[in-house]
Specification:
Pfam families: Glycos_transf_2. Helices cover 40% and strands 19% of the residues. The chain starts with a strand and ends in a 13-residue tail after the last helix.
Length: 315
Amino acid sequence: MRLTAVVLTLNEERHLGRCIESLRGLDAAVLVADCYSADRTLEIAREHGARVVQRQWVNYATQFNWALAQLDADTDWVLRIDADEVLTPELVAEIRAQAPALGPEIDGVYVGRRMTFQRRLIRHGGVFPVQVLRLFRYGRGQCENRWMDEHIKVAGPTVRFAGELIDDNLQSLTWWTQKHNRYASREAVDLLNLEHGFMPQDTVARLHGGGQAGLKRWVKELVYARLPGGLRAFAYFFYRYVLRLGFLDGAEGTAFHVLQGFWYRYLVDAKVREVRRYMALHQCGVVEAIEQVLEIRGVSQMAGRGADGSEAGIG
């Protein structure tokens, strides 16, 4: 079995070496798709035997799908892993033992994903472990065309492994809040797209048969997105922190649930309202408002195009 791990990077010198080391037991090739890092990311990648390609960033989906096109044709399986993530030894052993024996009809493998916040593993709030499709047959999967919260999608049957990967980011809280401010702008684009339809609707949302990711996306797009802005952020935080016992995660967990479960989602709603105000004030379209208010470039180019940048064939 020829396995290639794909890692997207931008200034990931703090995490990349640890990420690649966690793959060592898989005997996997590593492709680092970099967005012109200014630190030691490329040096670290090459020190660990990774192949490096570079491309200017548009969004995660287009970058990842472009990286897939750079893989060798004899690749059997692709592993998607972020630079700040590591595979647990249990998951490495499971992939080694079970992936080669999967039948040819199996397109993808779901694994559990957990997250730390300020070095504390988040155990409560009903958030983790989340099942994510991270291992898939080359040529049978791609990243859905979204600006935020992207998932790998495949057409055929999938299986689930018991092993997990851990998102263990070592950056500061200042870095985290700055990143989530950018994430909030990107998620606002997806919410506005649900309303205005200026880009192709590419989603894994399924009420039945789509696994945990499909069900969560269905709830997000068809229930959460239709609730009043602001109120839905508070309701979600109350569900996580009180009903699902998020307060048991201690001081670090409280910070996580408040910031990620309420502040971030309220910020998304506030950005959506800001775009709408700009549209009303300037009598302009949603794409122009997004690019002016949220300072996200490339939305107009993505409108009417597929996740890989090709024409989506809408007519």
